[in-house]
């Protein structure tokens, strides 16, 4: 076990004030934030495409951390983590396992959002003794329809956002209805609550590597989800234009021990952020059952 270079304080704090720590993993420093009670099985958060520590909705993190030890981290080569960003989901999964073991954990739960959900599926299958329970949000199985189009959608939204000075997450994560736009603006405001020691944005080379990994995940043969034996909670909005919502239904149908949260109405890819109160309550119930 590697000892964290900077250990977090023992007392919990809201996510917007949680210190950024680091741990050495095979010569690279992985940035992470930790909060919540110190006992119990830790919940590891696996972030979406281009996401860094500051892209987690603080309402979700704080809500979960009220009862669970929660740890968010930057993937290799992203944000505050050093190294070269992998261009396959499988390599990202190996990194996540090494990170978890570097912190000294023998068993954890996972919450994977979007690309993080791809990673969570690989870890759950390959490390059955390490992973106790899994939450998959806004994600889909390998070879799921529409997933290989995520890179093109993301690049189009990024270009449009640059021309219109609008955060691309508004169109990618939320519906175009009045309610969806309102929820999206509220979410972006919450992401600004941390005003000091913010994480670095993803670099262009790291972004390209992640796009390549997602395209490959979407085009590869479907995985045998029956190999994932852990309890899995599956959630999404009813109108996810990034990872089409029928992928969520497919996960719930094919995973042997799954529970499906009814798809959130008038919500898209970031359904768990739009309905953060409902999601946190359901997630805590699932993790505690």
UniProtKB/TrEMBL annotation:
**Region annotation (Disordered) ranges:** 1-20
- Kindly state which keywords UniProt assigns to this record, in alphabetical order: Hydrolase
Pfam families recorded for this chain?
Abhydrolase_1
- Write out the biased-composition intervals (Pro residues): 1-12
Top-level division of the source organism's lineage: Bacteria
Keyword Hydrolase included in the entry's annotation: yes
* The AB hydrolase-1 domain, residue ranges: 42-273
GO MF terms, alphabetically ordered: hydrolase activity
Q: What is this protein called?
A: Alpha/beta hydrolase
Q: Tell me what organism the protein belongs to.
A: Streptomyces graminofaciens
């Amino acid at each position: 076990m590697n000892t964290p270079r900077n250990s977090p304080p023992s007392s919990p704090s809201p996510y917007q004030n949680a210190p950024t720590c680091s741990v050495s993993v095979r010569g690279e420093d992985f940035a992470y934030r930790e909060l919540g009670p110190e006992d119990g099985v830790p919940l590891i958060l696996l972030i979406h495409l281009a996401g860094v520590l500051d892209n987690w909705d603080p309402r979700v993190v704080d809500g979960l951390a009220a009862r669970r030890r929660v740890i968010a981290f930057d993937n290799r080569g992203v944000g505050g983590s050093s190294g070269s960003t992998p261009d396959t989901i499988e390599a990202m999964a190996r990194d996540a396992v090494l990170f978890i073991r570097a912190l000294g954990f023998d068993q954890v739960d996972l919450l994977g959002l979007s690309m993080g959900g791809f990673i969570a599926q690989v870890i759950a299958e390959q490390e059955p003794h390490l992973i106790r329970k899994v939450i998959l949000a806004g994600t889909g199985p390998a070879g799921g329809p529409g997933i290989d189009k995520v890179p093109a959608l993301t690049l189009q939204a990024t270009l449009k956002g640059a021309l219109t000075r609008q955060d691309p997450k508004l169109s990618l994560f939320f519906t175009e209805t009045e309610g969806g736009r309102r929820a999206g603006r509220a979410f972006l405001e919450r992401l600004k609550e941390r005003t000091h020691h913010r994480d670095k944005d993803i670099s262009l080379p790291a972004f390209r590597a992640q796009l390549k990994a997602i395209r490959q995940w979407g085009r590869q043969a479907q995985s045998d989800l029956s190999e994932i034996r852990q309890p899995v909670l599956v959630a999404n909005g009813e109108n996810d234009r990034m990872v089409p919502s029928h992928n969520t239904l497919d996960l719930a149908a094919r995973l042997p021990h799954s529970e499906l949260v009814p798809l959130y109405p008038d919500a898209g890819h970031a359904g768990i952020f739009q309905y953060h109160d409902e999601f946190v309550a359901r997630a805590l119930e699932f993790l505690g059952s």
